[in-house]
Each structure stands twice: as structure tokens, then as C-alpha cells.
Amino acid sequence: MGEQSFLAHSHGRNASYAERIVGGLAGALDHALEAETFASRRGLLQALDPRTKLACLMALAVTAVSVHSLIVLVALLAFVCVVALGSRVPLRRLWKQVGLPVFLFTGPIALPAIFLVAGPAIAHLPVLGWPISRTGLRSAAFLLLRAQTSAGLCLLLILTTPWPHVLKAMRFFRMPVVLVVILGMTHRYAFTLLETAHRMIEARQVRTLGRLSPRERRRLAGESAGVLFARALAMSTDIHQAMIARGYRGEVRLIESFRFRKRDASAFATCAVVVAGALVFGR
Amino acid sequence: MHIPDGYLSPSTCAVTYAAAAPFWFVAMRRVRRRMQGRAVPMLAMTSAFSFVVMMFNLPIPGGTTAHAVGMGLAAILLGPWAGLLAISVALMIQALFFGDGGITAFGANAFNMAIVGCFVAHVTYRLAAGNAASTALRRTVAAGLSGYVAINAAALSAAVEFGIQPMLFTAADGTPLYAPYSLAVAVPAMMAAHLTVAGAAEAIVTGGVVGYLQRSHPELLVGREDGSRRSPRALWAGLGALMVASPLGLLATGIAWGEWGTHDFADAGVREQIAGASGGIAPPGDVPTGLARIADLWQAPIPDYAPSFLHSESLGYVLSAIVGVGLVILTCALVSWFAARRAPTGAA
């Protein structure tokens, strides 16, 4: 997507324009399928109640953003790696979907801070002679570690919890029911639209000889988006009629069938200790 | 544009969540009232569409590529309130499911892209499109322009959020704890990218989709500006209340940063205030020559919001507010009158 994201950017520079769009769309679909596969495995986080996971991982993310110590941030990142291994999420995947994108996106933003942030110089860049400040280095490290830790926690939540369970857990924390339903439908139909876009662009790709000019590519993207919007609106009307046919009268109800067990209490206690420790030592 | 976690302090994140919450509340109420049962599938599909559109990378003149956010499209096709909800939902799925934008920074991202973006796009589109027919070329251009202005307004909002971090949140040794660049660096860096590449992407997608819909589904471009035909009575009441409340400004002490007059440089008390508000940097001993040269070029008719014939400061503030609002309304009326005279009545 051109920004920090869990999606791998695997399509090559030599790929055609259509191939690159198809690659991006396929990457999003693959991520969703892989998330479901990981969520169905037996592991540490998979065994917990989604409400416990949501509350603990959010508390840890807020803690990672709040602490003022690099050592504590490194410890939190190590904790994320340990939890990932316990949940049968390989560190290679964590690196591919979090580590690398954060370095590629935040790295170029953090790097100039080493030279631009005022502070005592601890070294000079060879050849150019730019001073590397201690405060600049620390500042860049804060940015990278915070982004890595928070994104790692978010990925663990998504890889170990089916999306409908995440939504039900949100409902438990008093998120408006209508918003939860919209989020669920958006997620479901985003993939329907992704498949539609995928087929549309692929169909165009197989009918195209040679390379499209930038003007033609812009036109292709604009028109594809227009077709998608028209289809999305038509689909929303169909869905609404289907909902009415099934008894929908504007009120939304969700079935909540989660069970809070002893292991959830243990997870809560562990999380509370980690958060409290990080906040005390990270001041 | 999607701010990841760690760039903004927890208090900035809390403030942006608080700033966005009333908009979400009002938007939800308005959309449910307007769409009734249709709100849920309609918003879900538009959010899904915004999400997919963000995956379309576009070739930008100059050799690079960028993706659009879809805020201009959402505002034009759904109106600003439904649009802000659709973009917020798309942003939440991006943040949670795809890691594009942070969880703690979700409030800031929604405030910048969904709220600022949609409202700026809506106002720009309405001003630029005027009363042109739904199939007029002017609407295509207005759509592109609204996307361009909206993404730049959102980027400016994000840049300000970045830029205030090192001013407010540093460690004892001066290390910036969050985004490390000051406003002087953050604003030009963000705006350079958005005024050129990202702005072009947003303009191309917004203009391109509206252009396509004009040819294939012109009915989708008619009557989607929710709330546009509402009575402005509540707006006038709010404006009146704000005018009456304007003397609250008298409670603030000191001088606004950067609004110093030439005489303030000679006042020891004011010099101390300036130094205190400028991170301990003392102002120059003499009035800067550029300031001294142009400071007296214009004499305000009501200096310091206090007309000389009024002895009450509070009354002076209220009168200044009435005069200011009157002048703004008069200017808008004149611009609208000229625009209406020049606007074509049919297709361009």
C-alpha cells in the first residue's frame, strides 16, 4: 500500500501496472487467509478468550507508547517475540510482516533525526562529516522500537483471533453495536470487492498487449474505481433487501458466547505485571 | 499519511480521540436518521470500497506512484457525515487488520483523514462545482480539486500533530520521545510530498471516478450532499452565541506568540514573556528592521478589538465580532453573486 503495513510488497519493479495492482490485491487476500490459518492453530494466544487478548494487547500497546526508557521498550519487544513463539507465529513472519515494513517506512523518517536533532555529538558521519547526536540516536530508536512493538502486538491479535471474535470482543467493551456490525460487514465485503477488483484488473491485463502509457494507467485506475463504486452501491441495495427478507428491522443483535476461564485470569495477571513493571521502570 | 503507533504521545492520541468522538456521534445519528435501515449495508459497502481504492497505486507525472485515500470521493458521493464514517471504518480495518496506521493513533488518523479530509473536500467541491449540471466537466474538475485540497488539509493536520511533539514531549536530556521533528521541518516535509505526489493521486482518483460516474451512472452524483438543504437557523444561533461569548478572550493573559508589536520589544515584561514562550530564547534587543519597516503600513480601524468610542472592553469585543461576521458574510455574498452571474446554467 506504499505505507507501513502487514502486507508483503513482493511484486517486482518490472511487473506491469496491472500485475502490480493484482499483486497488491492478492497480497491482501493472502493475508486474510493466513490469518485464519494461524487463528485455527493451537497456541498460547489462540487458547485465550478474545476479550482477554484484546484488553491485554491494547494495554501493552498503550504501555509501549507511554514508556520513556529504551531498555524497557526492548524488553517489551522481546516479550512480544516470546508470546509470538508461544502462539506458534514464527519470528520470520513477525519480521516479514512487522519488522521489515517498519524499517522500510519508519527507518527513512527516523534516520535524519540522528543528524537533525540537536544534542552532544558522539561521532561524525564519514566523508560528509555530519555530527551524529546522542539525542538524535535515542529519538530514532524510540520511534522504531515503539512502532515495532505496537505493530507486533496488533499482528499477534489478528493472527491469533478470527475477525468475528475480535468484533464480538469489541462489543463487550461497549463499542456501539451498529459500528461493530458495520466493521464486520466492511471486512467481509472488502474481500468480495477485492476479488471483484482482482478479476476486473486481471481480465484487463490478459486483453492488454504491450505496456500502458501513464495516462492510460490513470484512466484504467479511475474507471476501475468507478465500476467498483457502482457495484458496491448495487451490492449494498441487494444486501439490504436480503437483510430485510431475513427479518432485519434496523436493530442489530449479536450472539455473545465467550467463556472467561482460569487461563484468562492468568493472562490478565501476567499482562498486569508486565504493564505495571514497564510503567514503573520506564518512567 | 497513516500515522503508525509511536509517533504521537498518548496525550495527543487522547486529545484526537476526544476531538473525533463528537463527529462520530453526530455522524452516526444523522446517517441513521437519513438512511434508516439502509445505513448499515450502505456504510459497510462504501467503507469496503474506500479500503479497496486505497490499494490502487497510480502513476503520477514525474515517474513515481501513490495511492489515494478516497476522502474526496466519500464526501462527494455520500456527503461529509456519512463519508467521515465510511473513511473511519476503513481506517480502523486498515489499522487493526493490515497494520496500516496505529491503534493508539487511530483517533488522529480518523480526525485528519475522515473528519478534516471529508469536510474540506465537501466545502471545496460545493464551492468549485457551484450549480453546474451533474454531467458538467466543471464537476469533474471540482472533484479532482476537492480531493487535492482535502488530502493536503489532512496532511497539514498530521504535520502539525507531528510538529508539536518535540515541543511538548522530551526526555530530561532533550531527546524527543515521539516524532522528533519540529513544525519547521514536519510541515514542509509533509506538504512537499502531499502537494505533489499524494495530492495528484487523490485528484486523479477523485476526478477519474466522478468523470466515469458522470458517463455511466450520473444518478449517483445527484442529491447525495446530506444536510445541504437544512435550515441554517441552528448555524445562526451558534454564530450568535459565539459572538456573545467573544469577551471570553479577555480572560487570556499575555500576548499570542508571534503577534508582537514594535513597542513590545522595548517592554521588559513583554520581553520576558516572549523569551518564556520561545523556549528560553530571548528576543533581539532592537526591533527587527523588516518588522519596523512594515509594521505601520496598515493601521487597523478597530485596534485590539477595542473601538476608541467604547469604554467597555467586553462590549468592544462583541461589537468587533458583529463587524467581523458582517464583513465575512458580505464578502461571501459578493463572491456568490459574482459566481452565480458567471456560472453556466447547463452543461459546460
UniProtKB/TrEMBL annotation, chain A:
GO terms for cellular component: ATP-binding cassette (ABC) transporter complex. It holds the Pfam family CbiQ. Keywords: Cell membrane, Membrane, Transmembrane, Transmembrane helix. It comes from the Bacteria. InterPro entries: ABC/ECF_trnsptr_transmembrane (IPR003339), ECF_CbiQ (IPR012809), ECF_transporter_component (IPR051611). It is found in: Cell membrane. The chain crosses the membrane at residues 54-85, 105-128, 140-160, 172-191, 265-282. One of its GO terms (biological process) is cobalt ion transport. It is a multi-pass membrane protein. Its main location: membrane. Belongs to the CbiQ family. This is Cobalt ECF transporter T component CbiQ.
Automatic annotation (TrEMBL), chain B:
Keywords: Cell membrane, Membrane, Transmembrane, Transmembrane helix, Transport. It is a multi-pass membrane protein. GO terms for biological process: transition metal ion transport. Residues 236-340 form the PDGLE domain. Pfam families: CbiM, PDGLE. The chain crosses the membrane at residues 6-27, 39-60, 72-98, 110-128, 191-213, 234-257, 317-340. The keyword Transport applies. The keyword GTP-binding does not apply. One of its GO terms (cellular component) is plasma membrane. Its main location: membrane. It is found in: Cell membrane. PANTHER family: METAL TRANSPORT PROTEIN HI_1621-RELATED (PTHR34229). This is Cobalt transporter CbiM. It comes from Pararhizobium mangrovi. The gene is cbiM.
